[in-house]
Amino acid sequence: MSKQRNSKSAKSNVSKLASDQPQNCDQDQSALREGKDETLSSPATRAQESFSVYYVSLSVVVVLVAGLLAFSVSHRFKNSVTVPTKADTKPKGLVLLTEEELSKHDGSDPNVPVYLSILGRIYDVDKGRQHYEVGSGYNVFAGRDSTPSFVTGEFSREKATDDVKGLSPEEMLGVKEWLDFYRKDYIYVGKLIGRYYDSEGNPTEALKEAKTVIKEGQKLKKLQEAQNKRYPGCNSKWNAEEGSTVWCSQNSGGISRSWVGVPRKMFKPGKKDSKCVCIKTTGPSSDTGEGNDGDLNNPTMKQYVGCGKYDVSCKL
Ligand code: HEM
Fold it and tell me: From start to end residue, where is composition biased (Polar residues) (predicted)?
């Protein structure tokens, strides 16, 4: 049955070959005329043919495998030869850095990301590199901890320090605000081993003290805000002809209120300098909750010279 099918297809091949290449294929044609067909060759020839087919196929497979191997080796080799990028110099995960390690991130090498430390917490500030790199205004912070400089304005690398001892609660609150800024805007890298974290990454006494002063600053700020509501600041202006004028209005000192008040000099306890505030002239005293003259009788509030008790505006 298979033989029949073969001879049938051989015939169709004959007519095709005969029509396509009648003059050049004498040998083939005579073979075909004799009823010889490539599929109908002797067993020895067939064995020889299948043997060579086998070798040809094997060679093709070998060439393909070798090609694939060569491709994968060259590909792998290509991947292994990488140019170091900034990503490579970034530590993976949170880390503890020594001062020396941090100093490499001082903005002097364009291939190394800029880091800074504030109260021992390290941030990757490479996004804002232009502010911190060598020669820029805020390079004092790059590759080191210069925490006090955030509030003292000491921008010399030689003079700057990481020691916040001696900063006031208000100044430490300023440090905390910068810390919040870096938390929000930049990537936290890890901790600096030194004044604020030990070699295990645990907070030191210096950090605990710093946090206590920050808390004091927060308490003072709340008190200050409450006081500003009670005694809002005055408006003020100055010109050469009239000199200084202070006055009260319903929005002076940034506090919106129903009352206007009158200007008074408010002295901070134990201090000589004063601040112009607006005080109520009616209702109970803000301090004692008693009386009906507002804060007119508060002993820490002084009238401006030449200004009447109920004057809303005073020329100084
Ligand atoms: C103690 C005083 C100051 C400190 C500690 C300080 C610190 C900084 C720092 C760390 C940055 C970079 C912020 C970032 O990474 O995006 C910055 C940016 C800047 N600062 Fe100051 N600064 C001070 C005073 C001033 C003053 C007085 C001025 C203006 C007269 C000023 C104007 C600017 C400006 C324009 C920028 C760039 C803002 C931007 O491009 O987004 N700074 N400052």
Answer: 9-30
